[in-house]
């Protein structure tokens, strides 16, 4: 079964487009009619995304670099957008809290929280006719990661969720909607090791009421609901797509 939305004429920017969820979302937005600009640091990967037809344009962009972010949004302006922005760039590292160097903590906040704000605010300044901003948060922004030791990631993702609420409220009168998806466990480069580890997979299955990790296509409904220009009254919300993980 495929979820559909009419995104004809919409210009979408997707960060984190060189792999995992961001790459998948490029395909979904393109299949539903949007003109997609794919952004990440690895240009060779992005060029493949374009060559495969999942995006119209590749823009090399480190989301922690404000000049790169300006260039990315300029590329969308050139095409008449941005109308949709998906903040899917992200990073995580396992380190026990007592052993986490402050630099590592700050770097995680920089990529996973500050850059989300930077992309959203730069895009919002360019959204003269309104638009939809979709932040990829995490179930680890709604609760602890324990027994996984990712204090910095949890702090950043929790920040993304409340940032989404604030920006949704602050920009509501401009017609800019801001929502977040909080995924459970999905296959990607970020989760490769967990998916290959039998013990970790057993833990995921035991703790997910649906009894398995998610498939990337199971995020499509949430993405298209938030991206669709018909969702005019939906803003400042976080939707956990997690097989029931946060319902426990
Ligand atoms: N997979 C899951 O189970 C899961 C669950 C909850 C939330 N999430 C969130 O979903 C989002 C996507 O993650 P994923 O699982 O798809 O992981 P992934 O496959 O590792 O993708 C991460 C993406 O972020 C990009 N990126 C990282 N740092 C960047 C930077 N400084 N500037 C620009 N791009 C950067 C990477 O591209 P380059 O290296 O080419 O720059 C890559 O495209 C993240 O926010 C993650 O926290 C994932």
UniProtKB/TrEMBL annotation:
PROSITE patterns (alphabetical): ADH_SHORT
InterPro entries, sorted: NAD(P)-bd_dom_sf, Sc_DH/Rdtase_CS, SDR_fam
GO molecular function: oxidoreductase activity, acting on the CH-OH group of donors, NAD or NADP as acceptor; quinone binding
GO biological process: one example: fatty acid biosynthetic process
Keyword vocabulary terms for this entry: Oxidoreductase
PANTHER family the UniProt entry points to: 3-OXOACYL-[ACYL-CARRIER-PROTEIN] REDUCTASE, SHORT-CHAIN DEHYDROGENASES/REDUCTASES FAMILY MEMBER
Family label: Belongs to the short-chain dehydrogenases/reductases (SDR) family.
Protein name: Putative oxidoreductase
Source species of the chain: Gordonia rhizosphera NBRC 16068
